[in-house]
């Protein structure tokens, strides 16, 4: 079994039946929306032509970034149902415009068709839409059929898609480690929302400046509960999204950084869990 697939399923196995039920309903709605959008794209020659031109104007780097944003959007959607303090939602990094959604859905369909039949796109570009229509109706993994009714089928389909995107993007290893090894700043919206609390008791030290946090002083409280002087933690979070004490990672506005963060959450959730099943 694919290791990415196993991580997803192990993480899902930690959810309660009500959580799973809510997740399945949400995933079904999400996949159906994407399915309807792709069907609209393929059924409209004008929209297909505009989307194809937009796709052709993008560099390889930007095409990869589109897929990464689409993956991040799906991971963010999934994280909302995990109900853990480490699954805080992503912010601007997960936003994707409708034009870009059309482009990434079309790009993924092209990739899947080429993998299925390398010669299919040797036809004239004017015939590509019909070629894609025929393939989409009968073969594609992206199609979400109304015949799929069981929770298992819905979750399997979603996890298969996410696993496929992860391998394509190649941002994370299956053990949860990132491949780029770069530091990213915490999202501004997250930093602004951090709570200010009053220090109670004495002897607490800010690990950044190594000075005592005096009783009665307002300090920053991170989601991991560690406390820091505001004047110390703000410059820190402008450089990196990790807690200086425990390396807890705040959401960022960096696409690859957010994929790594959410993947870490899934790996940790699934560690030691039993295999998923009904």
UniProtKB/TrEMBL annotation:
<keyword id="KW-0863">Zinc-finger</keyword>
<keyword id="KW-0862">Zinc</keyword>
<dbReference type="GO" id="GO:0005737">
    <property type="term" value="C:cytoplasm"/>
</dbReference>
<dbReference type="InterPro" id="IPR001841">
    <property type="entry name" value="Znf_RING"/>
</dbReference>
<feature type="domain" description="RING-type">
    <location>
        <begin position="206"/>
        <end position="247"/>
    </location>
</feature>
<dbReference type="InterPro" id="IPR013083">
    <property type="entry name" value="Znf_RING/FYVE/PHD"/>
</dbReference>
<dbReference type="Pfam" id="PF13639">
    <property type="entry name" value="zf-RING_2"/>
</dbReference>
<keyword id="KW-0479">Metal-binding</keyword>
<protein>
    <recommendedName>
        <fullName>RING-type E3 ubiquitin transferase</fullName>
        <ecNumber>2.3.2.27</ecNumber>
    </recommendedName>
</protein>
<dbReference type="GO" id="GO:0061630">
    <property type="term" value="F:ubiquitin protein ligase activity"/>
</dbReference>
<dbReference type="GO" id="GO:0016567">
    <property type="term" value="P:protein ubiquitination"/>
</dbReference>
<dbReference type="GO" id="GO:0008270">
    <property type="term" value="F:zinc ion binding"/>
</dbReference>
């Amino acid at each position: 079994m694919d290791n990415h697939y196993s991580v997803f399923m192990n993480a899902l196995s930690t959810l309660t039946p009500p959580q799973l039920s809510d997740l399945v309903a949400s995933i079904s709605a999400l996949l159906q929306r994407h399915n309807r959008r792709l069907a609209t794209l393929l059924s409209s020659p004008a929209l297909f032509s505009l989307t194809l031109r937009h796709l052709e104007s993008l560099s390889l780097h930007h095409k990869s970034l589109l897929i990464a944003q689409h993956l991040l959007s799906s991971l963010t959607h999934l994280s909302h149902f995990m109900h853990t303090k480490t699954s805080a939602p992503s912010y601007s990094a997960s936003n994707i415009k409708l034009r870009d959604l059309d482009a990434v859905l079309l790009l993924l369909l092209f990739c899947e068709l080429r993998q299925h039949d390398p010669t299919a796109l040797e036809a004239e570009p004017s015939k590509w839409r019909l070629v894609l229509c025929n393939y989409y109706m009968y073969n594609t993994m992206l199609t979400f059929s109304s015949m799929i009714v069981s929770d298992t089928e819905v979750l399997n389909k979603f996890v298969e898609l996410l696993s496929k995107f992860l391998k394509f993007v190649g941002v994370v290893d299956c053990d949860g480690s990132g491949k780029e090894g770069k530091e990213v700043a915490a999202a501004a919206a997250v930093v602004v929302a951090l709570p200010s609390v009053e220090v109670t008791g004495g002897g607490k030290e800010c690990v950044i400046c190594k000075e005592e946090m005096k009783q009665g002083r307002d300090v920053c409280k991170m989601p991991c509960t560690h406390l820091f002087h505001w004047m110390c933690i703000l410059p820190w979070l402008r450089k990196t999204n990790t807690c200086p004490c425990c390396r807890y990672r705040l959401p960022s506005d960096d696409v690859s950084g957010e994929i790594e963060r959410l993947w870490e959450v899934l790996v940790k959730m699934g560690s030691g869990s039993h295999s998923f099943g009904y």
